[in-house]
Design goal:
The protein contains 19 helices and six strands. By secondary structure, the protein is mainly alpha-helical. It folds into three domains: about 80 residues, Fumarase C, Chain B, domain 1; about 210 residues, Fumarase C, Chain A, domain 2; about 80 residues, Ribonucleotide Reductase Protein R1, domain 1. Strand 3, helix 8 and strand 4 form a beta-alpha-beta unit.
Length: about 425
């Protein structure tokens, strides 16, 4: 579990007020450390601490003229602090504040996302336990394959979300770094010890080495972790969308009282939440590419990454936070239809048990190639609706001279296909 502390909601993480508050936290932490080191007067720090504030509207007004957000911010703060404001931002460059403040925002965003992801894991695990022994047909290429259980299908999702939690935790650590190394990372106007002390005070780690910025592979990793998580949700939602199709109808997203599915067709119950999740996942995948594109910058820094980050970092965290909220509601209230699962499994007249027959023949000494051909012959006749698989096999001399009717019937026992399911669940701890 992540360490909990008071967090805003995701939208408030990315307001201008929140951004400038983080910047002020950074500046005050630097002033405090410099005062303790005797590099600025302690009385000046007390004044700064008591008076420092800013006004967003005023910052925006100043920025219209100076065309520099950090200078506009510092000017606004100086108007509140007075003459002691000359000690603010001493030895720093803009990105010392920008990137360290951004790390604080990203950490808050990651923690909000992790709270919802941990809930996803909990909900999925509960549903795995509920449906662990409910038989359903497994599909490959969209075609009936062999029996599985709905609990096993959900177990795949459960363990994948656990891996996503670990990915986002690692990405949270990767972006929880600050820097106070100056214009090109040489600490030309500030002691490296200040960086260490400031980062510790803010709950960050100091970047071991930096240019004017914290290197953007960290942010790319964060965006990639979010995109992978979103793609998992897309994967799960796509499966539900298929299972909700009219001719399948094995599971269905909730349809609430008063909800309407179509302006024209009153009968419609559409998987709109799943489709919304799938659509938003495309945005996160695209945003991850922006993270990769932001890594190669000119020399010690340019600002081509800055404008893009102001879009993709808030958008990705807000979108995934929303997707997780909808996904958790969806899975917790999922409509599941075991009777339809059995009906669909039986729809193909026993075709899905073909492998057991093949294995049965090979145990009697028939080559795999010959056995495959024999079983496939009957299977193709089932596709043509000439009878059930068991019936056709029992009329095939090539089969009956090796397998008795009882042995053929045993190949169609569902329990034989699911005999190891409990061993899988035991391995998973459920």
């Amino acid at each position: 579990m992540i360490e909990r502390y008071t967090l805003p909601d995701m939208g408030n993480v990315w307001t201008e007020q929140a951004k400038y508050s983080k910047w002020l936290d950074v500046e005050l932490a630097v002033c405090e450390v410099l005062a303790k080191r005797g590099e600025i007067p302690k009385h000046a720090y007390k004044t700064i601490k008591s008076k420092a504030k800013f006004n967003v509207a005023r910052i925006n007004k100043i920025e219209e003229e100076v065309k520099h957000d950090v200078i506009a911010f510092l000017t606004s703060v100086a108007e509140y602090v007075g003459k002691d404001s000359r000690f603010i931002h001493r030895g720093l460059t803009s990105s010392d504040v920008l990137d360290t403040g951004l790390a604080l925002q990203l950490r808050d965003a990651a923690d909000l996302i992790l709270i919802k992801m941990e809930r996803s894991v909990k909900i999925l695990k509960a549903q795995v336990k509920k449906y662990k022994h409910v038989p359903t047909i497994g599909r490959s290429h969209g075609i009936h394959a062999e029996p599985t259980t709905f609990g096993l299908k959900l177990a795949i999702w459960w363990k994948e979300m656990e891996r996503n939690v670990e990915r986002v935790r690692r990405a949270r650590e990767a972006i929880s770094f600050g820097k106070m190394s100056g214009a090109v990372g040489t600490y030309s106007n500030i002691d490296p010890a200040v960086e260490v002390a400031v980062c510790k005070k803010l709950g960050l780690k100091p970047a071991p080495v930096s240019t004017q910025i914290v290197q953007r592979d960290r942010h790319a990793e964060f965006l990639a972790a979010l995109a992978i998580t979103a793609s998992s949700l897309d994967k799960f939602a796509t499966e539900i969308r298929h299972l909700q199709r009219t001719e399948v109808l094995e599971a269905e997203e909730p349809f609430t009282k008063g909800q309407k599915g179509s302006s024209a067709m009153p009968h419609k119950r559409n998987p709109i939440t799943c489709e919304r999740i799938s659509g938003l996942a495309r945005i996160l995948r695209a945003n991850a590419i922006v993270g990769f594109e932001n890594m190669p910058l000119w020399h010690e820094r340019d600002i081509s990454h800055s404008s893009a980050e102001r879009v993709v970092l808030p958008d990705s965290t807000i979108a995934l936070d929303y997707m997780l909220h909808k996904f958790n509601w969806l899975i917790e209230n999922l409509n599941v239809y075991p009777e339809n699962m059995m009906e669909n499994m039986n729809k193909m007249k026993g075709l899905v048990f073909s492998q057991k027959v093949l294995i049965g023949l090979t145990k009697k000494g028939i080559s795999r190639e010959d056995g495959y051909r024999i079983v496939q012959d009957s299977a193709m006749r089932v596709w043509k609706k000439e009878g059930t698989m068991a019936e056709l096999l029992k009329t095939d001399d090539r089969v009956t001279k090796h397998l008795t009717d009882a042995e053929i019937d045993a190949c169609f026992d569902l329990r034989a296909y699911l005999k190891n399911v409990d061993k899988i669940f035991k391995r998973l701890g459920v």
